[in-house]
Design brief:
By secondary structure, the chain is an alpha/beta fold. It has eight helices and six strands, in the order αβαββαββαβαααα. The chain has helices spanning 16-29, 50-58, 77-88, 106-117, 127-134, 136-141, 152-156, 166-174; strands at residues 36-40, 63-65, 71-72, 94-98, 104-105, 123-125. The protein has a two-stranded parallel ribbon with strand order 1-4. A two-stranded parallel sheet has the order 2-6.
């Protein structure tokens, strides 16, 4: 079983640009300002991983990525914005995971997206194709990474998610 990361994500295993942000944020934290380091994983919408996958799925060419066993943390854009607003009014500082409370495996994500679109998802997207499209570091750090992250600190602050399950988040984003 994959370890569930509930807070204090460290730079190890995080895509390089995020690593640079975290290092910069660490220096800023030493100042007198309050700082919440937000790890945003798998944002829903046309960005994140959904953006490049959506056209494939709409054409009936979608499928699991690699083995499909890797965990994916995600968040709807509505919840992402609401969480950021919540954090601005909060005294919370330090690492905060901006993810929905229910991570899914890539296979479950694939099934949910295909069902919402009413399309089959019978293919497997090979890691080599992702490496060629996005570069090895990004592919391995995002789509192929096993990231089972939860928003423990955000939930502990009393934040309430509008879309805590993937199907409702997909319905919302695909209706736009």
């Amino acid at each position: 079983m994959t370890e569930i990361r509930s807070s204090e994500i460290t730079p190890e295993g995080i895509y390089l640009s995020r690593r640079r942000f975290m290092v910069g944020a660490g220096a800023l934290a030493a100042s007198a300002l309050a700082l919440a380091s937000c790890g945003i994983q798998g944002s829903s919408g046309t960005g994140g991983l959904l953006g490049p996958l959506l056209p494939l799925f709409k054409m009936g060419l979608g499928g699991k990525i690699g083995s499909g066993k890797q965990w994916m943390s995600w968040i709807s854009i509505d919840d992402e914005l609401a969480a950021l607003s919540h954090l601005m009014d909060s005294s919370l500082s330090g690492p905060v995971n901006l993810v929905a409370p229910n991570p899914v495996t890539n296979v479950d994500f694939t099934k949910a997206l295909a069902k919402q679109l009413g399309r089959p998802a019978i293919f497997t997207i090979p890691p080599l194709a992702l490496n060629a499209r996005f570069g090895r570091e990004m592919a391995e750090g995002t789509a192929l990474a096993n990231q089972r992250v939860t928003p423990a600190r955000l939930l502990g602050e009393g934040f309430s998610f509008r879309h805590s399950d993937l199907p409702s988040a997909l319905r919302c984003v695909l209706a736009r």
